[in-house]
Amino acid sequence: MEFETKNGHLIWDGCDTVALAEKFGTPLYVFSQTMIEEKCQELQRDFVEKYDKVRVAFASKAFSTLAMLKIIQQQGFSLDVVSDGELYTAIKAVFPAEQIEMNGNNKSIEELEMAIDYGVGRIIVDSLQEVDLIAAIAKEKQKVVNILFRITPEVNVTTHSFISTGQKDSKFGIPIDEEILFPQIKKAIDTPEVNFLGFHFHVGSQLFDNQAHLAAVGIALDLVKVVKERYDYVIEELNFGGGFGVRYTDADQPKPFSYFTDPMMKLVLAFCEKESYPQPAVVIEPGRSIVAEAGISLHTIGAIKELPGLRKYVSIDGGMTDNIRPGLYQAEYTGVLANQADQPVTETVTVSGKACESTDILVKDIQLPKVEAGDIFATFSTGAYGYSMANNYNKLAIPAVILTKAGKAEVIVKRQSLDQIIQNEVIPDFLQ
Questions:
Q1: Catalytic residue among 15, 40, 272, 356
Q2: Which of 85, 106, 179, 376 is deepest in the core (most CB within 10 A)?
Q3: Over the stretch 262-305, which tens digit does the pLDDT of each residue have?
Q4: Which residues neighbour 381 within 8 Å (Cβ) at sequence distance 6 or greater?
């Protein structure tokens, strides 16, 4: 991984990471606003400004805080939310409702009511019961709700099975079956409380090849044609999801956004020309690819255990509580000693976490300079699904989050206190 050093220390967006660790404590999430904005500007240049009727919706599940949503709004992007908590964060950030899409499987009645009350721009239907639920709520509130159907295009992807989401055997989406999807389409067309806009798909995450996306686009366009022929109904919007891969280690070779978006748009535009079809709006939902590489995590090294001829463990003051991905699906990371960032590597160690689980291993067999207690270990590319999946296992506190830009650093999420960990706990009277 390429990185900047000064006086032997890792520099992140102009900030000395060792100084950040000293000032704000560890574990610590550090996000570069500069890098986030650069990714957004790439999307603006190579997608939004390049094509008509296109839109970027940031998948907030990757990293959702008030400050992050302000950045996304300033960049002119829309927002994808999948829960009442993510929607509530958007509301508190005063994110424009019409620029929000409510996604996710198994939406509760309360979540649907919240979304409709707030006036979100569209709701992406993920189940066979959802159209009826939305229609009933909308009728009661005298509103008309824009909807899309999330379909499962059944394409093959090269990624971990846990983050492959576009197959028929998935909890996500509605399969393209004559007996399953098409009655739902007919219902949506005939229901006055909903405005059926089109289709959504998400084939998977952390993808470096565009073939799955292109295959899915082709399937979606075939479906658009069938809907026109069968119901004389014009689809106004297609959402092609995200899943664009990022660099976690040097083995990962991410592609520019245009590698995915250009051939997808080529298929759409060719279809519209051939079929004399009005161009639908096209939406993509990058999340990980906007924030992952912009974030690093800082931990302090504590206990060191060397097993001669076997392994050397160096323990950090966090682990799977602030980055569960390695334990969840064997995600790989790399990093450096932030306080020895320019020193040659001299030993191979395994960076282990603090949680009481043998699977709490952050990085296995990484080469580092001589490691000592008190060193600061910086893990790269933790901007996506680090903070958003953080947890209180072993009653460890959720770390603080810092936003940096051009040498300045500000707290955007305060470190969780011990009192906050137990603030919702009560002792019932019969135990008194």
A1: 356
A2: 376
A3: 999 999 999 999 999 999 999 999 999 999 999 999 999 999 99
A4: 246, 247, 248, 292, 293, 295, 296, 333
> Strands 408-413, 400-405: parallel, antiparallel or unpaired by DSSP?
antiparallel
Residue type, 3: F
Answer yes or no: do 148 and 178 share one domain.
yes
Strand 361-368 with 295-307, pairing? unpaired
In a domain, 410, yes or no: yes
Pairing between strand 54-59 and 100-102?
Answer: unpaired
In the listed set 269, 291, 313, which residue is the last one of a domain according to the structure?
A: 291
Q: Is 356 an active-site residue?
A: yes
Which two tokens mark 114? Answer: 């919240």
Q: Give the number of other CB atoms < 10 A from CB of residue 173.
A: 26
Question: Last residue of a domain, which of 270, 291, 312?
Answer: 291
Contact 327, 361 (CB under 8 A): yes
Dist. CA 101–CA 80, nearest whole Å: 5
Helix (H) or strand (E) holding 197: strand 194-200
Question: Does residue 63 belong to any structural domain of this protein?
Answer: yes
pLDDT tens across 147-202, in order?
A: 999 999 876 544 433 333 444 556 778 999 889 999 999 999 999 999 999 999 99
Low-confidence residues of the chain, pLDDT below 70? 155-170
Q: Are residues 358 and 236 part of one domain?
A: no
71 plus 173 within the same structural domain: yes
**Is residue 157 a part of any domain in this protein?**
yes
Place of tokens 């006036």: 119
The type of residue at 95 is F
CA distance 173 to 204: 12
